[in-house]
Amino acid sequence: MGNASTDNSPLEQRTYSGSGNEQLWTLTNIGTGLIKLTNVQNGKAIQIANASTSNSAAGQIGTYNALANQHFSLASTDNGYFRITPLLASGMGLEVNGGSSADGATLAQYSYSGSTNQQWKFEPTPTMQSLPAKLTSFTAKINADKNVSIQWATATESKNDYFLIEKSMDGKNFNKLGSNVSAKGSNSSYTIVDKNASVGNNYYRLTQVDKYGQNEITPTTVVNFGFNNFKNLIFPNPLKDKYLTIKTETGNEIETVEIFSTIGAKILSKKVTKDIDNSYHLVFNNKPPEGIYLIKVGKKYIGKLIVQ
């Protein structure tokens, strides 16, 4: 990147010198599976010029304003490298123009093809290898109320800022759970409760963030909810036709059933009435495409629906 610090300066590759901070970057997890990349020397963030979704749109640096064109996602290419995908252009990847290996070659977004000039490696530097919070535990367990308690503890904390918990239904697409949890200091314990766990696997991970914006993500922990962990049942599951039944406890009245994709997109919302056996019946005019969905009754997710 050189020593550029002006907004909208082009993003360039340079031979790593090992001195100074202009070639050092902080990767910050901002939740919902997204990251921002900011330069250690000037605090500027990588962005896509003019929030473009087109091929060849330039990579730049700019003052971070939490704009969509300053947010990216990472995906492993299974060879130790990563694809950097702009939020606004999901089918694209950040690449070195023309596959050049020369100093000064610029970066831009192009349709992702898996070529080597679209693959990136992240390496910690000696001054950025360790964060100021040392964890002693991170667990997620079903509690007595049939919710999931996510708990963690620290041995030491110095200049630690906050923690955040993310949740996923498939182990790949994560969304932030609740609010940031402020750091309390060394030898502290923390708890967040997920009251909307779903039938099947629920994946959780913890991110710790220091006061300089550096962060570290823990390995994922998994909690499996069987139907016996719920006060409500949905069947048949997997769904193979257009008729779905939701059975609730006596006295548990519901009015609306909603179905969402695993990334939170609402697929259906429908009012229902209760039968004499405390069951609610949902008839799809058009059955959703094959896949995994979440069922929501009122304000609570009650389970995972598989459509075949």
In short:
The chain has 308 residues and is mainly β. Helices cover 0% and strands 47% of the residues.
Description of the structure:
The protein is an all-beta fold and 308 residues long. It folds into three domains: 110 residues, Trefoil (Acidic Fibroblast Growth Factor, subunit A) (Trefoil); 93 residues, Immunoglobulins (Immunoglobulin-like), CATH 2.60.40; 77 residues, Immunoglobulin-like, CATH 2.60.40.10. The chain is 0% helix and 47% strand. It is built from no helices and 24 strands. The strands form eight sheets. Strands 12, 13, 15, 16 and 17 form a five-stranded antiparallel β-sheet that branches. Strands 21-20-23-24 form a four-stranded antiparallel β-sheet, with no helix packed on it. The chain has a three-stranded antiparallel β-sheet with strand order 1-5-4, with no helix packed on it. The mean pLDDT is 83.
What is the element layout, followed by pairings?
Blueprint: E1 9-10, E2 25-31, E3 34-39, E4 45-48, E5 59-62, E6 72-76, E7 82-86, E8 92-96, E9 107-111, E10 133-142, E11 148-157, E12 160-168, E13 174-182, E14 189-194, E15 200-210, E16 215-217, E17 221-225, E18 233-235, E19 243-247, E20 256-261, E21 266-271, E22 279-283, E23 291-297, E24 300-307
Instruction: Please report the total strand number as a whole number.
Output: 24
Mean pLDDT: 83
Could you say how many structural domains there are in total? 3
Order of H and E elements? EEEEEEEEEEEEEEEEEEEEEEEE
Q: Report how far apart the termini are.
A: 49 Å
Structural class: mainly beta
Strand content: over 45%
CATH fold-level topology of the largest domain: Trefoil (Acidic Fibroblast Growth Factor, subunit A)
Helix content: under 10%
User: Main beta sheet: strand number and arrangement?
Assistant: 5 strands, antiparallel
* Uncertain spans: none
Number of helices: 0
Bulk shape: globular
CATH class of the largest domain, named Mainly Beta
CATH architecture of the largest domain: Trefoil
| Radius of gyration, whole Å | 23 Å
